[in-house]
């Protein structure tokens, strides 16, 4: 499951759980792009539980959207990732080192309130 919700003019919340199929990926990415249209100095809040690598057709959909996704990077300044999987948190923070202008911090689920406070600081 992938849900995307614009919760404030400068914030998008994303929930990802379990295995994602092509239809779910397409729907989620379209909603992310639409939610980010007028975003400036934005914040992303990811909550990831029971992570499973998406199905191959879902990854193909993501590759199709890569040009649009790269354009979104400049619209966001901060990203908090709350995840129950250690290696996903590490990869998220590593990605943050590769994206100029976007700071990514990862948190364990029991630190969700801390993640929220950091994102809003």
Distance between the termini: 29 Å
E-strand count: 5
Low-pLDDT windows of residues:
none
| Total count of helical runs of at least 4 residues | 4
Strand order of the largest sheet: 1-2-3-4-5
Brief account:
The chain is an alpha/beta fold. The protein has helices spanning 22-35, 56-72, 86-98, 112-120, and strands at 2-8, 11-18, 42-51, 76-83, 103-107.
Please tell me about this protein's structure.
The protein contains four helices and five strands. The protein is α/β, with parallel strands linked by helices and about 120 residues long. A five-stranded mixed sheet has the order 1-2-3-4-5, with helices on both faces. Helix 1 runs parallel beside helix 2 (about 55-70). The chain is globular and about 35 Å long.
Which key terms come to mind for this protein?
121 residues, alpha/beta, Transcription Regulator spoIIAA, globular, STAS_dom_sf, SpoIIAA-like_sf
Which helices and strands occur, and which strands form pairs?
Elements: E1 2-8, E2 11-18, H1 22-35, E3 42-51, H2 56-72, E4 76-83, H3 86-98, E5 103-107, H4 112-120
Parallel strand pairs: 2-3, 3-4, 4-5
Antiparallel strand pairs: 1-2
Helix pairs in contact: 1-2
Protein name: SpoIIAA-like protein
Pfam families: SpoIIAA-like
InterPro entries: SpoIIAA-like (IPR021866), SpoIIAA-like_sf (IPR038396), STAS_dom_sf (IPR036513)
């Amino acid at each position: 499951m992938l849900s995307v919700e614009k919760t404030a003019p400068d914030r998008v919340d994303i929930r990802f759980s379990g295995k994602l199929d092509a239809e779910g990926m397409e729907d989620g990415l379209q909603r992310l792009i639409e939610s980010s249209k007028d975003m400036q100095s934005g914040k992303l809040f990811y909550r990831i539980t029971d992570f499973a690598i998406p199905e191959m057709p879902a990854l193909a959909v993501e590759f199709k959207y890569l040009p649009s996704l790269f354009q979104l990077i400049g619209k966001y300044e901060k990203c908090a990732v709350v995840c129950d999987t250690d290696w996903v948190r590490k990869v998220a923070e590593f990605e943050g080192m590769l994206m100029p202008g976007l700071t990514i911090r990862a948190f364990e689920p029991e630190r969700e309130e801390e993640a929220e406070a950091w994102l809003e600081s």
